[in-house]
Design a protein that fits this description.
alpha+beta, Chitinase A, domain 3, 2 domains, 5 helices, 14 strands, 24% helix, elongated, disordered N terminus, PPIase_dom_sf, rotamase, isomerase, PPIase_FKBP_dom
Length: 284
């Protein structure tokens, strides 16, 4: 649930930012950009490490509080596990936090709308703690929200605990669940048979009824249904379709696959970009 809560919060932040910029006056925007920069510079003058600040090409400022030169940098599509909190630069009011202040994982570089929160992990290495200073256009935008005045610069505190590729996430998940993989295809579809039904595989171009439950690797359910599936028509996620083709009639399995066999860099509905998926499936 922590993962979903964070993604919803960050998505809402970025949507507000975009809509605020679209509705705001350009002259006002430019004036507030200058005001934000003055506020950030004033904050940095009072900060003992302010001389170490770096300004990113996006307009984001950051100070590495705890460096780790040998740490790993996240790549697009990796899952970054972070501790995160954010505050109004003006008065220190907390406006961004994880549920119960616990570490949260999310795919970096996968949001539909860009913002300072998405950019931040790319400027860190694992084990590092960093302060990010976000001008309003990289935070909540030009419209007011609860506890957040319009055009507010934000101070973001982040610790990058670890970063994992999709296959590393899948390997950890399978190990944690103690699954015995029946088959792993060259495309990295993992099939864990949960019955002993035998018979010829369903194959391509066949219509079958399938009962399924779809979950993220943290166990959160995002979908379930009992549709009629015609295989190899491009109607379904590739990993889901391939698994059905490989199972016999009445077969049951748990399947796991990366976003390259799912919804890739765009995502779909509640499925964020670069998200590996797990399905429990039964051929009826």
């Amino acid at each position: 649930m922590n993962r979903i809560y964070l993604l919803l919060c960050l998505s809402a932040t970025m949507v507000v930012s975009l809509s605020g910029c679209l509705k705001s006056d350009n002259n006002r925007d430019e004036e507030m950009i200058r005001e934000n920069e003055m506020a950030i510079e004033s904050y940095l003058k009072a900060d003992s490490l302010g001389s170490r600040v770096i300004k990113d090409t996006t307009g984001l400022y950051y100070i590495t509080r705890k460096p780790n030169p040998t740490g790993e940098k996240p790549k697009v599509g990796d899952a970054a596990t972070v501790k995160i909190s954010g505050y109004l630069l003006s008065n220190g009011t907390k406006v961004i936090s994880a549920v119960d202040d616990k570490p949260i994982s999310f795919s970096v570089g996968g949001f539909v709308l860009l913002g300072g929160i998405e950019r931040s992990p790319f400027l860190m290495r694992t084990g590092e703690k960093t302060t990010f200073l976000l001008p309003y256009y990289l935070a909540y935008g030009a419209e007011a929200r609860t506890n957040v005045p319009a055009y507010s610069p934000i101070r973001l505190e982040m610790e990058l605990i670890k970063t994992r590729t999709e296959l590393q996430q899948i390997d950890e998940y399978i190990l944690e669940k103690k699954f015995v993989v029946t088959e792993r295809t060259p495309e990295n579809l993992f099939i864990i048979r949960t019955d002993t039904t035998t018979g010829p595989p369903i194959g391509s171009g066949k219509s079958v009824r399938v009962k399924y439950v779809g979950r993220f690797l943290d166990g959160t359910k995002f979908d379930e249904d009992t549709p009629t599936v015609t295989t190899n028509t491009g109607q379904w996620a590739k990993g889901f379709d391939l698994a059905i083709q490989k199972l016999p009639a009445k077969g049951k399995a748990i399947i796991v696959f990366p976003s390259s066999l799912g919804y890739g860099a765009t995502g779909k509905g509640p499925i964020m970009p670069y998200t590996p998926l797990q399905f429990e499936i039964e051929i009826l």
